[in-house]
Amino acid sequence: MTNIKYISPLKLILLTPIFILLTHHLAFFIHEYAHAITAWILGYKDSPFDINYGGMNLSNLLLLSGVDQKVDNSLIYSSGHPGFVALIAFAGPGIILFLFFITSWLMRNKKISTHPYQLYFLFFFNLWCLGATYAYVPVRTFSASGVMIDIVDIEQSLNISPWLIYFFIGYLVLFMMWQFFTKSIIAIYVNIGISSIIARASLMIICVLIVFGYCGFVGFYNHGKISHFISVTSIFAIPAIVIALWPTQKWIQKRIEMERAR
User: Fold this and answer.
1) What angle do CA 243, 246, 252 make, to 5 degrees?
2) Could you tell me which residues come within 8 angstroms of residue 47 by beta carbon, excluding any fewer than 6 positions away?
3) Measuring CA to CA, how many Å separate 210 from each of 71, 98, 100, 181?
4) DSSP conformation letters of 98-117
5) Domains of the chain by residue range
6) How far apart are CA 116 and CA 221, in angstroms?
7) What is the tens place of the pLDDT at every residue in 232-242?
8) How buried is residue 105: exposed, middle or buried, by Cβ count under 10 Å (0-12/13-18/19+)?
């Protein structure tokens, strides 16, 4: 590969937390606006931008803990359109799922791979798309009835078993994990010039903690015993996942050589 421009270690250290925060907020608002726009199109909102933005407290500014779609499902049910509840609920995770595969494809594009800053930003956006999907399936797929989250709204409005979602979407999430941790992160090592073991391990651990720690933790928040168990399992799995993905593993080294040869 020719004419590669790498990001310096100092810039990587500075950009990583900034890109993590920015891409988290971008993915989050795309998700919420997808709900709102769908509800607006269906006639259940006066404005596609009418969502709860939360307050100015630090928790909301950093984690968007007070932001939600502000859709009145009871009104939709009372109008006799439970399918609309499912459609609105699916719009958020659906667009994030779609964007995961779009950004995965973009990161493999040779034109993008020669622009390290764009590539690094896409990488973290792709990471949040993966984490957000994982937070629904499997972590909160079996959330207790009455919990106000998208996956439960889909199950209840369509009157389907959570096992159906767990089975079909679960395999898709496994594929997404494989795509990210065996291809996307390797491409980042090579195409933005992360060469040291410490730097590669640091980036990998950050990604694992975001997906299996931060996003995997959501099952603890009053989602029922099964979701709680899945979150516990996700947290306890982190050390084993880190070991499996450690940059000195032979299969990682082989993947790096394959990426360099592209």
Assistant:
1) 125
2) 36, 40
3) 28, 20, 16, 13
4) HHHHHHHHHHHSHHHHT-HH
5) 9-260
6) 37
7) 999 999 999 99
8) exposed
E strand or H helix that includes residue 142 = none
The closest alpha carbon to 219, from 152, 172, 159, belongs to 152
The closest of 19, 18, 63 to 214, measured between CA atoms, is: 63
Query: 3-state DSSP: the chain helix, strand, coil percent, rounded to 5?
Result: 75, 0, 25
The secondary structure of residue 19, as a DSSP letter, is: H
Q: Which amino acid is at 244?
A: A
| 133-158 pLDDT tens trace | 999 999 999 998 767 799 999 999 99
Among candidates 231, 174, 204, 191, which has minimal Cα distance to 108? Answer: 191
Note the pLDDT of residue 144. Answer: 81
DSSP conformation letters of 30-50: HHHHHHHHHHHHTTS-S-TT-
Give the confidence band of 1 by pLDDT, cuts at 50, 70, 90: very low
- Evaluate whether 182 touches 255 at the Cβ level (below 8 Å): yes
